[in-house]
Amino acid sequence: MIKNTAPFMRQAVMDLEESRIREVANAGMGRPDVLAFWFGESDEVTPDIVRQAAIDSMQEGETFYSHNLGLPELRQAVSDYMSALHGQTKVIGVDRLAITSGGVNALMLAAQALIDAGDEVVAVTPVWPNLTAQALVMGAQLKCVPLRPVSGQWQLDMAALKSAITSATRMLIVNSPNNPTGWTLSRAEQAEILAHCRSTGTWVLADEVYERLYYETDTANGCAPSFLDVAQPDDRLVVVHSFSKSFLMTGWRLGWLVMPAAMTPHMGKLIEFNTSCASVFTQRAGLIALQNTADITPRVVAHLKTCRDTLLPLLQAVPGVQVAPAKGGMYAFFKLEGHPDSVVTAKRLVAEAGLGLAPGEAFALEAAGWLRWCFASKDVSRLTEGVERLKSWLAKNESGADPH
Amino acid sequence: MIKNTAPFMRQAVMDLEESRIREVANAGMGRPDVLAFWFGESDEVTPDIVRQAAIDSMQEGETFYSHNLGLPELRQAVSDYMSALHGQTKVIGVDRLAITSGGVNALMLAAQALIDAGDEVVAVTPVWPNLTAQALVMGAQLKCVPLRPVSGQWQLDMAALKSAITSATRMLIVNSPNNPTGWTLSRAEQAEILAHCRSTGTWVLADEVYERLYYETDTANGCAPSFLDVAQPDDRLVVVHSFSKSFLMTGWRLGWLVMPAAMTPHMGKLIEFNTSCASVFTQRAGLIALQNTADITPRVVAHLKTCRDTLLPLLQAVPGVQVAPAKGGMYAFFKLEGHPDSVVTAKRLVAEAGLGLAPGEAFALEAAGWLRWCFASKDVSRLTEGVERLKSWLAKNESGADPH
Questions:
Q1: For the residues B5-27, what does the mean pLDDT come to?
Q2: Cys bridge to A235: A231, B248, B324, B360, which one at CB 3.0-4.6 A?
Q3: Which residues of B touch A62 (CB under 8 A)?
Q4: Are B128 and B179 in contact (CB under 8 A)?
Q5: What percent of chain B has pLDDT over 70?
Q6: What distance, in Å, lies between the first and last C-alpha atoms of chain A?
Q7: Cβ separation B275–A262 shorter than 8 A
Q8: Cross-chain residue pair B41–A54, CB shorter than 8 Å
Q9: Measuring CA to CA, which residue among A383, A316, A20, A307 is closest to residue A152?
């Protein structure tokens, strides 16, 4: 006698797209013959020294609840690390930092802190779908400003972005270096966006988890331009970071937030209500990772650059492929001519070629026809083998068009 | 030139109360002379065998992303475990289960899945404040139905609850065995509440994390009555569980959700957008914990019963104290006559007696004058020493009244 008057769940949640990446990956997961490049993670295990720190912590019995905002010593280490990168004029103090259960968790916390149902949120797309989905979970009205591809290189239309952000805009979501396109904001563009958002009272939520994975040489600190470099401490700016990419710690679920100091106590409450804290042993691992960043991160980035520089020319030589080098991140994002539906293409590549890529539709409708290739591969020959598989598959489908 | 037209953060988030428990704990944390009973956790380290499972997983290199809904083998183990307890008529299948980053994370996910801004939510109070705060983060209109204390025993006014839940009520939040009061629903009451919620189309969010910590002998399975025992698989019911209490795993942040099967894929999306997954090594620990529940949990519960049965008579013998035995959970919740402001009292007890308790106001306004004592203490003599400190402090304050 259940009265089904109320809807099953929130419509906003039921409407959320299931990941188109998982949709493709599910078609090939567990198949050892598939070369999988669909997820955004390296296939290299977390460094020994980092794992050992967590093991030591467990053996010492650190299995209890901890501080909402993170271990004081880890927050201090993050403060030191961030200040070395971005504290040219002023240190980034612990009072501006919270440790989170991953970068994605940090982004969700920011959405909870800032988005009331009905608020307008602007996002620069294509983008990692979680960023826009979180805003929708919080009930936002989402307005997307698409990047535009020019010869395989995605570019921002600054005028379009500025006209999209008005005093009615609560938050701008921007991810640079960008997943999936590799597009990266310049410092001048960041300053221009920030100035505009100041004039409209709009928060900037900057996902900068790929900042260390930067292959240009135009910045003094070697990492990608950051909103932190152009902002004041009390600007309406939240920057999200993660241990996942720069320290090979995807599975650990550890990240952090940089925010105005006045926001931090409120963030502590939200962390209490979301996950309460990150595990202490996980935080100990993060602490050791930061203390050894000079050994870990440059090696990771140098290897990723080798991966990029191996994959890119091979892909560029494939007829029908349009792709430009990513300035940052760990993805080659390329257009495959004659294959306008990338979900279909990606599923066929799994089934027919043993090649696992992510479809562009996962990141934006305007990216249909594009495919994302995560080039974070410990063994570079997997990349060359992948290109061979792509070429063979294309040769077998010389008509070029999807049969669908 | 920041235009401060927009509010700083969401008003709903700024209005959230900071934990009154942390407020008291902050006054005494790190002071070795304070006997701390303020938090809801045992002071016993996670069992060796459980920690070793996580260590093995790390050493084997399980440091990558994993399934949103949890490792298939862990979901199967939870299914077996839950079915043994509550599957009298039907197993609780893996299609109804999601692994979460702690019980609190499971509760927040349920709130995200079900609460649109403006929805009416009814909560039975006093209750762990995170439960009501999560609803407020999602923009709910909160209506509280207070339990009533009779000789120190908190009781439900079923008529008041049923008249509070109407067809306008989206969700009922109920935590039984209850933190902080120890109040526990009977199976008959659960059936009556469920029938009423079916008639109004209201979801029941049942926090049953203390179900194994039950000291009565009136159920066949030895654990507290559960809504799962009276519900159908497709009822609007979400039950939240945690590894924290029954397996001494508070700091691990691992829990699970039981829900209607049709909800599970949507929950997978929400997990992706909140934390993506629990760490694999943490899930391996949970798996070993479940496989060894026969060794771990009865020992934990028997010790907690000893703790309760040690503390209760001592507290009952203190003049001015009103307290009844908790049917379940790990708290003695008692009224201290002549001390109407428990935040003041708790802070004074920390400063003047070296005794750390949680103030009733943390759980509901109607619990002002009450104090929560977590009796999960490995060393039972800490409890007797704590009562001595309380008695000495009371003797020194014979007037009985707060000086404030």
A1: 84
A2: A231
A3: 251
A4: yes
A5: 97
A6: 45
A7: no
A8: no
A9: A316
> What's domain B62-293's architecture?
3-Layer(aba) Sandwich (3.40)
d(C-alpha A255, C-alpha A242), whole Å: 4
Task: Kindly give the parts of chain A with pLDDT less than 70.
Answer: 1-7, 399-404
Hey, do A11-46+295-395 and A48-292 end up sharing a CATH topology, with the first three levels equal?
A: no
- What is the rounded average pLDDT for all residues in chain B? 94
Name the residue of chain B whose CA is nearest to A112's CA: B137
pLDDT, tens digit (0-9, with 9 covering 90-100), for A89-111 = 789 999 999 999 999 999 999 99
Tokens of A60: 């010492």
Q: What is the DSSP letter of B138?
A: T
Strand, helix or coil for residue A348: helix
**So where are chain A's domains?**
11-46+295-395, 48-292
In degrees, rounded to 5, the angle at the alpha carbon of residue A156 between the alpha carbons of residues A153 and A158 is: 155
Closest CA to B193 of B217, B226, B149: B226
In 3D, which of A124, A131, A164 has the Cα closest to residue A148? A124
Bridge partners, residue A370, by sequence: A335
Does residue B2 carry a pLDDT above 60? no
User: To which residue do tokens 């659960």 refer?
Assistant: B190
Q: Measured between beta carbons, which residues in chain A are less than 8 angstroms from residue B201?
A: 2-6
Report the distance separating Cα B191 and Cα B229, nearest Å.
Answer: 9
Mutant choice from B2, B5, B63, B67 vs A, greatest count of A C-beta within 10 A? B63
Nearest CA in chain A to B51: A58
Q: What is the DSSP string of B51-106?
A: HHHHHHHHHTT--S---TT--HHHHHHHHHHHHHHH-SSS---GGGEEEESSHHHH
Quote the CA–CA distance of B350 and B343 in Å, as a whole number. Answer: 11
- pTM score: 0.96
Q: Which residues contact A37 (CB under 8 A, 6 or more apart)?
A: A355, A356, A357, A358, A373, A374, A375, A377, A386
Contact across the interface for B39 and A65, Cβ inside 8 Å: yes
- Do A252 and B283 meet the contact criterion of CB atoms below 8 Å apart? no
Please, which residues bridge with residue A258 across strands? A97, A239
User: What local confidence, expressed as pLDDT, does residue A2 receive?
Assistant: 47
CB contact under 8 A, B282 and A279: yes
State pLDDT tens for residues A312-364: 999 999 999 999 999 999 999 999 999 999 999 999 999 999 999 999 999 99
Mean pLDDT of B278-290: 98
- CA distances from residue B66 to A42, B38, B309 in whole angstroms, order as listed: 13, 35, 43
Q: Tokens 């669909």 identify what position? A: A38
Options 3.40.190.10, 3.40.30.10, 3.90.1150.10, 3.40.50.2300; CATH for B11-46+295-396 is 3.90.1150.10
Mutate which of A4, A11, A108, A273 to disrupt the B interface (most B C-beta within 10 Å)? A273
DSSP string, B217-229: --STTSS---GGG
Tokens coding B59: 């050493």
Task: Say what the ipTM of the complex is.
Answer: 0.96
Q: Nearest CA to CA, how far is A108 from chain B (Å)?
A: 6
Give the pLDDT confidence score for residue B29 in this predicted structure: 77
Among the listed residues A143, A139, A181, A186, the one whose alpha carbon sits nearest the alpha carbon of residue A161: A143
A48-292 CATH fold:
Aspartate Aminotransferase; domain 2 (3.40.640)
Which CATH architecture does the domain made up of A11-46+295-395 adopt? Alpha-Beta Complex (3.90)
A117/B115 CB distance under 8 A: no
